Amino acid sequence: MKRFTKQETSWMFYDWANSAYSIIISTAVFPLFYKAAATEAGISAANSTAYLGYTIAIATFILAMLGPILGTIADYRGYKKKFFTFFFLVGVLSTALLAFIPSDQWLLLLICYTFTVIGSAGSNVFYDAFLVDVTSEKKMDTVSARGFGLGYIGSTIPFLLSIVIIILAQQGVLPLSATMASKIAFLITAAWWGLFTISLLKNVQQKYFIEPEKNPVINSFRRLGKTLRNIRQYRSVFLFLIAYFFYIDGVGTIITMSTAYGTDLGSSSTNLLVILFVTQVVAAPFAVLYGKLSDRFTGKKMLYVGIVVYIIVCIYAFFMKTTLDFWILAMLVATSQGGIQSLSRSYFAKIIPKEHSNEFFGFYNIFGKFASIMGPLLVGATAQITGHSNMGVFSLVILFVVGMVVLARVPEPTESTSPA
């Protein structure tokens, strides 16, 4: 008997596909490319970091507003795949478009980057919701964690290829400018993302749904309003979302702004790319390990472990001064980054009604995205006020602490706690 079905494997491989975007565009090459463009335009390091934070905040705000509405509509039979495909195409095409924007147009780069964020995060809303369709509740932790593990492994291939091209271009081995090498990395990302999504588009189908009805948009708003009015019926769901709101804020902020922060500390672009590559390699087995340990100690306890590690990360970041410090910080993040995200996804999938998975993952998205607005704004504003990025990172500690306290009040996902 195969350990994973074709549907489970196809679903997990979207992490493999989309993670190339996460590392190359969100975390590594694009932030460095943008920082260089902004610096050349005469913008200070603190201000360019702040503008990147504000851009992320705007993009996530747009998607946060759309998430529950689109998710509620997507619960109708056949709609989930359509919405997923739309956002996936927006993400892939805008990522490819980055390669054709002049490097001196830093503002235009940020505008295009906004669409890549919307496409990537939007497709993930419906991708996450597909988890209930492809596997059983018993296997959700394992499948979700394995997806993140595949994502880390898969992202290292296009990332390594991009790093090699960029470094060889910088050293004059390849007849390319550093700018052109970065643009090639953007095209590699779009191609990788598109190619390895084909399996999901072909093999994953919506299993849980509600039947289409007249005036689907109006009725979707009614169902959304009904869910909000009956919030007490889903107490464990929304209590978890409050906890998630706080702790995932810090996680997302550290992921999306790490390279900009490292640049402000004086780390070279080459060092940052190598550090991020090693981080991906280390994170893969730890993501799978979190899934296995959740079977023994429960997903909730492993979430506590991940939150504690991130608290240590924020405290250490406050005192960070050298590239060695950044290495240590990156390895700490690698141990828990995938685990805390994958187990949050599977924990939530276990406690929601499956027929309304898109609607509830829309709420999951809005809580996560609003948190992503607060974190970058906090880091950006603090960096500008104090002139020191580390103060903003340190302030994230309170978010992890509050998240852990609220999580303690959420019951373990069982048949009795899952809404019917």
Automatic annotation (TrEMBL):
One Pfam assignment: ATG22
Topology with respect to the bilayer: Multi-pass membrane protein
UniProt xrefs under SUPFAM superfamilies: MFS general substrate transporter
InterPro entries: Atg22-like, ATG22/LtaA_families, MFS_dom, MFS_trans_sf
Gene3D superfamilies for this protein: MFS general substrate transporter like domains (1.20.1250.20)
Domain of life from the UniProt record: Bacteria
Gene Ontology molecular functions: transmembrane transporter activity
CC per GO annotation: plasma membrane
Keywords, comma-separated and alphabetical: Membrane, Transmembrane, Transmembrane helix, Transport
Ranges where the Major facilitator superfamily (MFS) profile domain occurs: 236-420
Main location: membrane
Transmembrane region(s): 12-34, 54-76, 83-101, 107-127, 148-169, 181-201, 237-260, 272-290, 302-320, 326-348, 360-379, 391-410
Cellular compartment(s): Cell membrane
Name of the protein this chain belongs to: Putative MFS-type transporter YxiO
Species in which this protein is naturally found: Xylanibacillus composti
Gene that this polypeptide is encoded by: yxiO
